[in-house]
Each structure stands twice: as C-alpha cells, then as structure tokens.
Please model this.
Amino acid sequence: MSQIPQLDRVKYAFIFPAFLLVLTITLFPLIYALVVSFQTIRIVPPVPAKFVGFDNYVEILGSARFWGSIQVTAMIVLISVAIQYVLGFALALALHHNVPGASLYRVSFLLPMFLAPVSVALIARMLFHPVLGPVNEFFTMFGLENLPFLTSPNFAIATLITVEIWQWTPFVVLLMLAGLQGLPTEVFEAARVDSISAWRRFRDLTFPMLLPLSVAVVFIRLIEGFKIIDTVFVLTGGGPGTSTETLTLFAYNEGFKKFNIGMTSALSFLFLIVVILFGTIYLAVAQRMIRRYQ
Amino acid sequence: MDRVMFRRLGLGLALVWLVFCLFPLWWVLVTAFKPPAAVSGGATYIPFVDFKPTLQAFKDAFSGVRGDFAGPIFASITISVISTGLAVFLGAMAAYALVRFEFRIRLLAGLAFGVLSIGGFAVLNQGIGLSVPQSLGLVLVIALPTAIWLNGCNLPGPVLGNDDVTFWFISQRMFPPIVSAFALFLLYAEMNKAGVRLLDSFPGLVAAYTAFGLPFAVWLMRDFFANVPVEVEEAAMVDNIGRMRIFFQIVLPMSKPGLIATSMIVLAFIWNEFLFALLLTSSKWQTLPILMAGQNSSRGDEWWAISVAALISIIPMIAVAIFLGRMMRSGFLAGSIK
Model:
C-alpha cells in the first residue's frame, strides 16, 4: 500500500463524514449525560440543576432494585446464550452435513432474527396466554393446566429465556455454519480415512478449530443480550413487581416514569461499567481457554 | 454405524427446530384471520377446519377504526429507508478508506481530545453558563482541530492503526444503547428548548438511526472492499483518475452485491429498532415498533388486531430474510466472520 503523499490527503475526505456523525450523535451527547449524572435534575416537577457529586451513583449502588435488575439480566442472558450456543452449533453441524431438506431449513432458520423483538413478544404473549394460548393447551395434555407463564416470577423468566432462544439461535447457526464451511476439508478427509469416530473428529478437530469463532459469537450474543428491553417491555413490563426488570428497562423506568434524569444518566454509566467489566472478564477467560487448546 | 446415528440425530433436531421455529409464525398468520369466537374459545389452528376465516381485522386496521396505522407505517418506511441509505453510503466511504489507506492516530492526541471535550464542556456550560448545544458545538470546534494538530506533532506513546479505527467504529455498537439513547434524548430536549426541533422529528430520527447503522455498514463493507481486486484501481490511478472518481465509478459498482446485502442487514436493524424510537418520539414520528408495543395494553384480548399489526411489521423482514438466505447459500457471509 504505497501511496503518493499528496494523494493520501483524500483519505480524510472518505472517513470524515462517518467520523463526524458518530462523534456528534453518539459520543458528544455522552459528555452532557456525564455532567448530568453528577446533578439532581427533575423535569416533572421541574427542579433546577444542583451539583451533588457522586450521590446519584451511591444511591443506585445501594438500591436493591439495581442489583435485582443486574441479576435478572444476567440470568436471562447467561442461560439463553448457553442454550443458543449449544443448539445453534448442533443445528449448524446438521445443516453442514446436509441433512435431507437442508435448503428448506436454511431460510426458515434465519427468519426469527430478522423480526422485530416487539412483534415477537406480542406473538409470544398470545402463545403463552395462560387460558387461551396453545402452549397452555400443550401443557394441559400433561395435566398441567393454566400455568402462570407471565405472572409468576420464575415462569416469566423462563418464558423470556424461551423467546430469546427462539429469536437468537439463528444468529449462532448463521455464523457457525459460515465457520464450518470455511474449515479446510483435507484434514477431515484424512481423519475419515484413519477411521476416527465422528464424535472424536468433532472433539479433536472441529471444536478446537472453531473455538475462536465460538468465543466471538458468544461474546456478541452476550453483549447484545445485555441490552434486552423490548421483549421484556411488551411481554411482562418488568413484572410481576420488578421481578423481570432488566437493566435497560430499569433505566428507562427511572427516567421516564420518575423523570429523574440525573439518576438515569448515572445508571446508564454504571450499566456501561457493568458491560465493560463483564466483557473484559469474559475475554480474559476465553483467551486462556483458547491458549490451552492450542 | 455412528455416522448413520448422527445423521438421524441431526435430522431429528432439524425437524424439531423447524416446527419450533415456524409455529409462532403460523400462529400469527392464522390468528389475523380469526373471528372473535375463534380466539375466546381456546386455541384454534387450522382455518376452515377450526374456524371460518374473516378479513375483518385487516379491514379495521386499514380503515383506521383501530387507531392510526398509516402514520407509523409511513414514518417507519421513510425513516428506515433514508437512514439505511445514508448509513451504508457513509459507512462504505469510511470502510473504503480503512481498507485502502493507512491511518496513524496517536493515542495521546485521542486522549487529549477526550479531556479537552469533557473539560471544555464542563467549563463552558457550568462555569460560563452557555447553553448545552452552544457549549458542545464550541467544544467540538476547538477540540477537533487541536487534536488533529497534535496528531501531526511528534508525540511519544503508542500509535493506533487502521484496525483500531475500525474497532472504534464497531465499539459504538458494543456499549448499551440506553447510554447513548438517553444522552441523545437529553441533547435533543435541549435543542428543542433552543428552538431546533429534533425530538419527535424526521431529521432527528434519521440522524440517530444513521449513526446507529453506521458501525454495521463499516464492518460489513470493509470485507467486501478487501475482496475487490486492487489492480483495477491501480490501473485507473496510473491514468491519473482521482480517488473519488475511482471510488464512485469503479469500486462502488463492483461491490454492488455487498452494498445490497449490507443495506438489507442495516435496514432490518433500523426497521426493528425499539429503544431509540421509544425515547426520541412522542406522537408524530412514532415508528411501527412503538405502535406495536402500545397494542399490547390498548387491545387486550383482541388477538386478531394484534396479529394484523404484527404481520405488517414482520412481512417486509421475511422478504429480507429470504433474500439473504439465498445470498448466504452462495457463501457471501463467510468473509465477514474473520
């Protein structure tokens, strides 16, 4: 990539529009929010801004609702991503080995991840209706009638996890399939000639070779999962009580029901710290795991 | 022998998943045609056998009896199409620069920019008492040239390259959207006070969604451009054709499949987006997801109406998924995972 220096200038014309947009729309508002997070400001009733230092942060860290929402979010995300990964990998393997009708599955398996989570949640609300829904009918066959799918804390979380799995396993399938298709075929031919069993081929070849991709896929799903609000917003509204309130929903409620914007700003920055912490720990652990395998 | 067993296992799993995957879609499709009696009497599944289908729910939705559907549909279509176009265009330009040129950003200059911006804003806004938009604008005008000037100086410390710039773009997507959405809401509210209407407005939403879609566009387009052979461009450069013309007349037409695929993915993300719309709209520019979320409380057990609304939001995305599924078979996504 040797360029004539004068011509090089044009690169700024290429990148600056995008750079400026991200700067003004995504990053600069954060500066204001950061300042606000150290103040008490209420919109309704209007209270003039007052500098309060770290009071907002301290108050949030001391509130049970904050820790509760972290627990709920982490539970939904960790369980659903674990199942998504196992299921998605298995499905990708099945598709890769051309199970009969593979071309039919491919499109249908992709579908859920392209639908608006709000619509998915609306559909799920019908399906999981405790009296009129088909899921209730299914469980009635086993003598379990009118289970409180959305109105008892544990059931509600299980329902949310199910919806997340339905919607996002396709993402894992998509990427793992792409990874499988990119693997060198010679190695597998050789292994087959040496009549190494399918299970050992998977354990000793496929899995280690796809480990870096797996780490990335799980990472993306974890990060995306932590943002969950729309599904919860429609499906349970955070209820019963606050037993299914996720971090984003908590921040939203704090800002738009109580109109306490200093608090919401502080909360969103704490959320940022939580995500960075989780991400760093995850990547450190994952790196060690990859190294051990190689 | 275990080969056969694994094949059967795979087939079984795929079939179970297929049913699990498609049943909710079948359900919403048939429920849209159900008369009230077919809903309140318990679950029904097959039209003409279980119940007599009716078009009443569709008629209600489109005649406006059940609230305004046309407005949010119009808002969703215009906002998502225009933001997608802008995001893919700007993202493609940035991605091209990241593939074909070399960037060197000094970490110290970047840090100076951050410190100057935050400190400058605090002084101007809190100390001198300028309004929020004014101080932010002023800070940008001061800090950016300073940082660019500093970057030219021979500062010590690590130098960031193209991969770091790419990561900077992508990392915008990694942090929780409530952080930037809420900050943007605060800024837009201040702008509204200053007389520039951005909350619940078309330009405000398009700006927000363009910035929202940009990271994906940069990420995906980078791989497509990396696969465009550089020889053609070099030949054009020998003929003294400007870099901009090369980009618009040679590179962009050559990467049409990539542009289409990227647009589809970005469009899906923007079409389905909920949080930004929830915070930044109130009535006039409400998008479909917001309308949908409202259905829940206002409709209760009127499942036929809910299903029609869900179908309206789902159908365009089914088309997108089918299209991308076709492209996936030709192996085009394989590049973007590296």
Observations:
- Chain B has two domains: 30-103+161-337, 104-160.
- The beta strands of chain B are 105-106, 159-160.
- Chain B touches chain A through 109 residues (CB under 8 Å).
